[in-house]
Every structure is written in C-alpha cells, then in structure tokens.
C-alpha cells in the first residue's frame, strides 16, 4: 500500500483525492489547514460517497466513488508513513504547508508541487533546510485537470484532462522507495502523461502565465485614458501585434537567463525552458487554428473563445479594468517578480520584463523593483530569490 498525502481543500485537492483514492494499492490522506475545511469535508463524506465525475472527450462521464481514507488538519496524522506528499494549493499557501509538515517528514519522502509555481523550490530549500536535500522534490507546470468542486467534500467535476504535463524532479540524497515520476503517474492513472526533465529552476522560469497575463494587461491598459468601457474587451483573442511582440520579447529574456545559467553551470539542464510560442504549440496543439506566429496562435486559439479582461462594473453598467485580479495579485509576486529576481542574481538585463513589472507593481500599489533592483519593501511578499537572501546562482540551484 502506498500512502499519498494530498494537501489542500480546493478544486485541485478534491480532484486529486478522488482520482488517487481510485487507484489500486493507494491510501489517500488529505491534509487541509484552512479554516474548518477538514471538519466540513469529513462530515460531508459521512453521509455520502465522494464522487469524482470525469467528463471524457466523447461527452461520456466516468464516475469514481472512492473516498480518501482520512481528511485532517493534523499534519502529524497525515504525514506518518507517507511516501509522497502533494501540494495542490495556490502558491501563496505553500509555505504554510511546508512549515506544518516539516517536523513530520522523514528523509526519502517525495514532495510534489502540483502545480509548483515560480519559486516553489526556494520555499522548500529555505523552510525545510537540510531536510530538503534528503527528499526528492518535484514541480509541475500546471494541474493535470481543469476541475471544479460541485459539492464541497462530496463531488468534484473534471472538465478536462491534459494529455501531458511537464515537470522536473530533484532526486534527494536519501532515495525514495519508489521512482518519483512513476509513483505520481500511478496516483493519476494514464493521463496526463508526466514528462519530467531538467532542473526544477526550469519549471520556475517556464511559468508562462507570469508574462502572458502581465504583457496582455500592459498591452491593453498602459495607455488607457481612464474612460469606462461599454463592454469587457477580449483578453487573449483581443491582443494586438505590439502585445504579441512584447510577450515574445519577455519570453526571449527568460531564455537568455536559462542559457546564461547553463553557460556558467554546464551540468545544469534548463532545456525545459522553451519560447512561449513553442509552449502554445505544445499545450494547445489541437485548439490553435493559425500556427504561423505568436500573434496568430493566440488570436486563433479556440480554447480562448469568449475570455475577457477581468473587469468590475460601475453603477451605470460600464466596465473598468480590475487590477486586483489574480493575473496581477498572484502572477506578479509568484511569477514575474521571481523571474526578475533570478535574472538579477544571474546578471542578465531584462528591459522588457522591467518595463512590465514596474507598470504592474504600480497598478497593485506594491514596490518590488526599485532603481533596477529587487529591493522594494514588498519583496518579502514574493518568492523572488532576494526575499530568501539568495544572492548566488548556486543558491538558486539549491546547491
Ligand atoms: P482553489 O482556489 O480551489 O484553492 C482553494 C483552496 O486553497 C482552499 O480550499 C484552501 O484549502 C486553500 N486556501 C485558500 N486560501 C487560503 C488561505 N488564506 N490560507 C490557507 N489555505 C488557503 O485552487 P485550485 O483550483 O485547487 O488550484 C490550485 C492551483 O492550481 C492554483 O495555483 C491554480 O491556479 C492552479 N490551477 C487550477 C486549475 C483548475 O482547474 N482548478 C487549472 C490549472 C491550474
């Protein structure tokens, strides 16, 4: 029997709990530290199955009814004897789980960020200290599914399952009982197919949302005159050529960071860092109608049909951009600021990232980049290396 700990109480945690509990020889325990989620989830399952509805391509639904063995807020009860611990929560909650789990984790355990999100490994190295190097650490670029809780603690809907999911593994000095990738694949079933390659830092740098979302917001609103709009503009499919060029340029800057690190550290593999166009062609292969270039790929991506800018409504029914949305509030401190911080440590200039970051931080009312350095007062609320006093390339590589 493999013991799997799922951390969190949201959409991803519900889905992972239901899917993994349905796999053979797998005991699933859920650890949720938030509010009264553990009690509510436990109570909800007393009188009902725990249902995971998988919506298949052919419109059929596969229904799984296996329950996690335990839902608890006690990290000791959850972690004892665990082979693998999977964090399936938003990035800003990772530190809380790592702190809570640390006294209960034994060397050789596998830790997974699903998704990892930028700077995941910096949180792990810093909070777990020497324990981190004795564990195997994995990070993935996203969740395996598009999923939503239908009924808390009782039913979750898997709206779509990715074909493949890219991640990276750092093998710890104390071997785990099982191969990390195979073990996680066993928890998920055949899909998505897990593709683990390269260094964990590659997953941090490859977090495309941090510059896709910020470049689109910048492109649409940086010269906006403040007049409310009659309707919300299309987010992805409304981009112009300048925005696509900006996004592409920011992606090029990320590639330069990766290349510079590999030049200084030939044994470090960051080939898992791709240009954003390559990422689009991989992830949305079947949805993109015109694959000529980044601009046409985004505008013709059918997965984006109808998605609009985050807006708030005025009393007279007009629309204003919502700059408090997670595209800024999460994708900057747990995204673009991390890339900029890594660039600073590596010594790579990033004029386009700087320009967008400065605009975004102003919209958020935060201060990260000051006079070209990540020294602003709000750096402590990001996952950029400077927040952890990591000043060398070795430190960000976890050496
Ligand atoms: P979610 O929004 O459902 O997560 C909410 C959960 O996070 C809560 O139930 C609670 O357990 C925890 N939480 C929230 N605020 C907290 C706080 N202040 N303190 C402690 N715990 C708190 O997130 P979801 O949908 O499960 O997504 C997890 C990650 O996966 C996110 O980074 C999301 O962007 C990403 N993702 C989600 C997809 C989806 O379809 N749900 C698809 C692709 C990526």
Question: Tags for this entry?
Answer:
single chain, 399 residues, alpha/beta, Rossmann fold, N-(1-d-carboxylethyl)-l-norvaline Dehydrogenase, domain 2, 8-stranded mixed sheet, 4-stranded mixed sheet, binds 1,4-dihydronicotinamide adenine dinucleotide, NAD(P)-bd_dom_sf, oxidoreductase activity, 6-PGluconate_DH-like_C_sf
Query: Mean pLDDT, as a whole number?
Result: 97
Within the CATH hierarchy, at the fold level, what is the topology of the largest domain? Answer: Rossmann fold
Read across the widest sheet, the strand sequence of neighbours is 5-2-1-6-7-8-11-12
Number of E-state strands:
16
Our Rg estimate from Cα atoms comes to 21 Å
Instruction: Please give the CATH architecture of the largest domain.
Output: 3-Layer(aba) Sandwich
- Contiguous low-pLDDT stretches (5 residues minimum) are none
What structural category do the secondary elements indicate? Answer: alpha/beta
Give the helix level as a range of percent. Answer: 25-40%
CATH homolog superfamily of the largest domain: NAD(P)-binding Rossmann-like Domain
């Amino acid at each position: 029997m493999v013991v799997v700990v799922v951390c969190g109480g949201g959409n991803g945690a519900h889905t992972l709990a239901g899917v993994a509990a349905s796999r053979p020889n797998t005991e699933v325990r859920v650890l949720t530290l938030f509010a009264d989620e553990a009690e509510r989830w436990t109570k909800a399952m007393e009188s009902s199955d725990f249902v995971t509805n998988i919506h298949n391509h052919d419109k059929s639904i596969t229904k799984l009814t296996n329950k996690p063995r335990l839902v608890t807020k006690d990290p000791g009860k959850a972690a004892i004897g665990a082979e693998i611990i999977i964090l399936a929560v938003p990035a800003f909650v990772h530190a809380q789980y790592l702190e809570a789990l640390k006294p209960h984790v034994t060397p050789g355990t596998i830790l997974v960020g699903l998704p990892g999100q930028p700077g995941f490994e910096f949180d792990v190295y810093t909070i777990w200290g020497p324990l981190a190097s004795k564990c195997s650490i994995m990070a993935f670029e996203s969740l395996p599914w598009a999923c939503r809780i239908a009924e808390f603690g009782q039913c979750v809907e898997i709206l779509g399952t990715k074909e493949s999911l890219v991640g990276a593994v750092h093998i710890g000095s104390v071997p785990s009982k099982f191969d990390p990738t195979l073990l996680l694949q066993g928890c998920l079933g055949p899909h998505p197919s897990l593709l683990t390659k390269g260094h964990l830092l590659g997953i941090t740098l490859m977090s495309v949302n941090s510059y896709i979302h910020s470049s689109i917001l910048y492109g649409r609103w940086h010269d906006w005159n403040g007049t409310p709009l009659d309707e919300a503009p299309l987010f992805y499919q409304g981009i112009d050529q300048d925005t696509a060029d900006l996004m592409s340029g920011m992606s090029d800057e990320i590639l330069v960071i990766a290349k510079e690190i590999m030049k200084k550290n030939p044994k470090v593999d960051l080939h898992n860092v791709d240009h954003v166009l390559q990422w689009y062609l991989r992830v949305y292969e079947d949805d993109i109608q015109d694959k000529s270039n980044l601009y046409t790929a985004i505008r013709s991506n059918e997965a984006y049909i109808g998605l609009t800018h985050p807006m708030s409504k005025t009393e007279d029914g007009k629309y204003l951009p919502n700059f408090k949305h997670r595209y800024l509030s999460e994708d900057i401190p747990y995204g673009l600021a991390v890339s900029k911080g890594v660039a600073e440590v590596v010594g790579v200039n990033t004029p386009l990232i700087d320009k967008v970051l400065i605009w975004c931080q102003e919209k958020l009312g935060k201060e990260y980049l000051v006079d070209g350095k990540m020294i602003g007062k709000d750096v402590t609320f990001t996952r950029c290396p400077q927040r952890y006093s990591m000043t060398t390339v070795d430190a960000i590589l976890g050496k």
